[in-house]
Amino acid sequence: MKPSATIYVSNMSEDVWPFISAMSSSYKREMEIQENLRLSEHDLFSFAGKNNCLMILPSYPSNDYLKYVKNFFQNPNFKITATKIHTGEISKDILYDKEVLEDIDHFIKGCAKVNLVSYCISRQFLTLGAFLKAKYPNIYFSESPDEADSWTVDFYGSKSGIRQLSQQSEADEPDFKMAEGLISFGTENTAKIAAKMYTTNGGVVIKTNKGHSGAGLLIFRPGDLSRNCSDCEKTILKKLNEEKYWVLFPIVLEKYIEPKFSIGGGYPNVEFKIHKNGKVEFLYYCACRLTREGVFKGIEIHNDVLSDHVSAQIVDTGFFVGEKLAREGYRGYFDVDFIAAKNGNLYVAESNTRRTGGTHVYYLAQALFGKDFMYETYTLSNNIYKINTKRRFDSAQLFSLLNPVLFDKKKQEGLVITGTSLLAQNSFGYVIFGKNKQRALKIEMEMEKLTGLSG
Predict the structure, then answer these.
(1) Dihedrals φ, ψ of 424, to 5°?
(2) Any idea what DSSP says for residue 276?
(3) Half-sphere exposure of residue 52, counting CA atoms within 13 Å on the CB side?
(4) pLDDT value for 455
(5) Do the beta carbons of residue 433 and residue 440 sit within 8 Å?
(6) Residue 412 clears pLDDT 70, i.e. is over it
(7) Does residue 3 contact residue 74 with C-beta atoms inside 8 Å?
(8) Angle at the Cα of 268 (from 264 to 273), degrees rounded to 5?
(9) In 174-257, alpha helices (H)
(10) pTM higher than 0.70, yes or no?
(11) Cα 358 to chain center, whole Å?
C-alpha cells in the first residue's frame, strides 16, 4: 500500500463561476469555459516529478503532448483521467461520471492517505470533497480551509474583500496600501462616480468584484474619454450596460495609476502557500506580463527581476496578508498583485486565493533547477501565446516547428511547451529558461520568428 498520494482536480472555471454564469453572451461564456479547459494542461507541470498522483482534468491531453511531458519527468504511479462531459463545473461533472468515480475508487483503495487538492477551493469542490470523505475516511484536505472558514476564499479573493482588509490594516502595515477608490453598486451610480473620478484625475479603473484574466476590468486612461462629465458618464454607462455582471456584483472604482515599467514591468507579484498548520510559506516573487487591457499573459522570475528594496517590501506585505488570512482560517495558495507607480509607491491591486497562472511555472522551474532556481535561471512564461499565422498546427507539428528552441537538458536552456490543446484557438502555452534575461528573451524572439514565418 502506498503511504501517501494526491488527487488533483483542475477546476479553473469554478474559481469565477458566478462571473462566468453572468456573462451576457452565451458565446463568450462558452469560450471562457473552453479556454479554461485548455489551460488545464499546464497543471501537469505543477506535479513535475511527483509520484502517486491522480490528476482529474476537464479534457484528456493528446498523446503527443503526454509523450512530450514524459520526456521531462518519470512520475511513478502518475495517472490522468478526464470527465466525459465538461460543463465548466468539473467538481459536479465528476459526481455524475461513473468511469472517473471508478478511477478514484481504484486509486484511493491502494493508499493509506490521500490528499484531495484543486486549482481553487470552490463551493462545488467542497461538495465533491464532502461526498468523497463520507465514502473514503483516508481522504484529507491539506490545501483547503475547514468548512466553517471557507468564506475566506471568496471574501479575500475578491476586489472588495482585499480593499476592506487594506483599510483595516493601514495602521498596522503602512506599506499595505491600495489606489484611492471605493466600492459601488449599480451601473448608473457607478457611471456617475467613475465620470467624476475620470474628469478630476484623468483616469479611472473599474473592476467587477471577481473577474478573470482581464474580463470584468475596464481601464480608462488619460485621453480615452471626454473631460465633459456628462459625456464621460454616458460613455461609461453604455460600456457597463453591455454586460449584466456589472449589475449583479459589487463594483470597485479606483484612481488610475500610471505604472513604472522599469519596476517589475510595472506589475510585481508575490505568491505564498498557507499550510494546514497555519504556517505561511513564501514561494517566489516575479514580474507579471500584462497586456495594455490588463489581460494576464505570464510571468518573469529571477532574483534580479526586482530590486532588493522592492522584493523585500512586497514579500513583507505578502507575509502580512498571509498571516491575516491564516488567522481567519484560510488554507492553500494565494498571491498579491501590485502596481508600481511612477511616484515610487507600490500599491496592492488584488489578491487571488487559489493557485495562480504562475504556480505551474514555479514548480516546473524548481523541478528542473532546484530550490535556488531564482538564482540559477531566468524564467519567462506565456500561458496563451497567439501564433502569428493562419496556418493550423497539431501537437506533433508544433513540436517539430519549435524543435530548434525546445529545452535542452544538457544546456539547461530553451522553451518548454506547457499546453497544446490551445492550438484549437491557434495558441499554445510555454515557459522559457535562459542563462540570463538576454538569453531568455532571445529564445522567445526565435520562437516568435519560427511561428510567425511558418505560414
Answers:
(1) -65, -25
(2) T
(3) 15
(4) 41
(5) yes
(6) yes
(7) no
(8) 140
(9) 187-201, 229-240, 245-248
(10) yes
(11) 6
